Amino acid sequence: MPYPLNRKRLLAAMPEILLAMSIPVGRETAAQAAGIPPRSFERYMARGRAARATLEDAIDAGQEPPTLSSDDAFLLGIYEQVEAKRSKAIIANALEIRQGAPNWQARAWTLERISREQYAPPVRHELSGPGGGPLETLQVVVSARNECRTELGLPPLEIVQRKAGPPDKE
Q1: pLDDT number for residue 33
Q2: Angle at CA 119, nearest 5°, toward 49 and 113?
Q3: What's the predicted TM-score (pTM) here?
Q4: How distant, in Å, are the alpha carbons of 73, 87, 125, 147 from that of 50?
Q5: Which of 38, 59, 80, 119 has its CB 3.0 to 4.6 Å from that of 111, i.e. a possible disulfide?
Q6: What are the residues whose beta carbons fall under 8 Å from the beta carbon of 32, sequence distance 6 or more?
Q7: What is the pLDDT of residue 50?
Q8: Do residues 82 and 114 make contact, with C-beta atoms less than 8 angstroms apart?
Q9: How far apart are CA 108 and CA 21, in angstroms?
Q10: 3-class DSSP string for the chain
Q11: What φ, ψ does residue 42 adopt, rounded to 5°?
């Protein structure tokens, strides 16, 4: 069962969280620095995001926005403050890059980390074997003890080679 919402504790931590978000660091680090358990903070943010989506869905459908519970309304406000601070940090970094700041590469790196979906280069890795099939690997097992066995007058262990992966079709 999740911990109950502690409004006083969260409100007391908000200045530190917002300061950390302006640097910017991730929400997890910001929450830890402010003494809020990161998992609790992420649950709070998820509830705030869900409240925002509920309101937007109703407005998009031309309906009267539903009345939120007091906790959801509170967490919506917290979510919006954190996201606003994150957005301002993104804008500040983007402006410094655009203006050719001496440390623009560091700003670009920061943008790639705080907003991957927008600023990180797309990366996709695909591996396959011949004809698009599974990869075949060869595993060679060699005993490191063969030298010791030889010194003791014992025969060396056999070197075993076997294919790793799906069994061969015959």
Answers
A1: 86
A2: 70
A3: 0.62
A4: 11, 19, 33, 65
A5: 119
A6: 38
A7: 95
A8: no
A9: 16
A10: CCCCCCHHHHHHHHHHHHHHHHCCCCHHHHHHHCCCCHHHHHHHHHHHHHHHHHHHHHHHCCCCCCCCCHHHHHHHHHHHHHHHHHHHHHHHHHHHHHCCCCCHHHHHHHHHHHCHHHHCCCCCCCCCCHHHCCCCEEEEECCCCHHHHHHCCCCCCCCEEEEECCCCCC
A11: -65, -35
12 vs 161, more confident: 12
Q: Per residue in 27-49, pLDDT tens?
A: 888 888 888 888 988 999 999 99
Chain position carrying tokens 């007091």: 70
| Domain range list for the chain | 7-119, 133-164
